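Notes taken during the Thursday session

The instructor put the following on the board and asked us to keep it in front of us for the whole hour. The protein is NAD(P)-binding domain-containing protein. We were told not to look anything up and to reason only from what is written here. First, the residues (243 in total):
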Amino acid sequence: MATHCKTVTFLGASTGVGLSTLKHTLAAGHRCIALCRIPSKLTTIFPPETTPNLQVIQGNAHDIAAVSKCLVAEKGKLVEEIISTIGGKFILSKMTIDDEEVCRKGMTTILEALAQLRSGGATGRPHIVVGSTTGMSRFGRDIPLAMIPMYHVMLKVPHEDKKAMEDRLVESGEAYTIIRASLLVGGETSKEIRVGIEDPKTGRESKAIGYTISREDTGKWVADNLVLQLDGRYVNKIVMVTY
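Then, after some discussion, the predicted structure tokens were revealed:
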């Protein structure tokens, strides 16, 4: 159980990395606020009667009013952390996603919501964690050679959206950590997770190149290193995680 109870906002936590991070954050006793278009996706997994520290708010991550509701921990104070793992559905036949600007619009909404809340008197500087992907480094290759065709051709459109999201966050002046996970697969494991760190301005500090990592293990790593205890090495950095 957490000795200090944080309030953490989740966007995109109904599946994948976000869901795993939410599960481990709740288990540690922290208060969580999750924005979900279909609340039953979360309340079925976390019944309200047995999960009193989870508040599920119905809404879209591109709706500034809905997002704003999720960013206030208590009157006058913003939440301590924001975990955003939103993304689009990949359409293989068109080599694109159903919303080609889903991540950049989501980041713009978060930043505008924070600005509006602060202009209304709210205080606080949440640490913003966003889910991104490897294959986008400006400082050299961060994926195996065999994966270059898939990442640079098939995933070109969603990667452009992720880049725009990352740039907006880095330039915002907010505290952040960008998680670039390897190709996401299913299944919780006990495998060792290797970590690389990149500064968006000065370049790579350490390298970790791999093929895959599971959504469940990525979410647990995020919870352990960025929520339950915030490791200062990862603040205002891009972090690559892989097996």
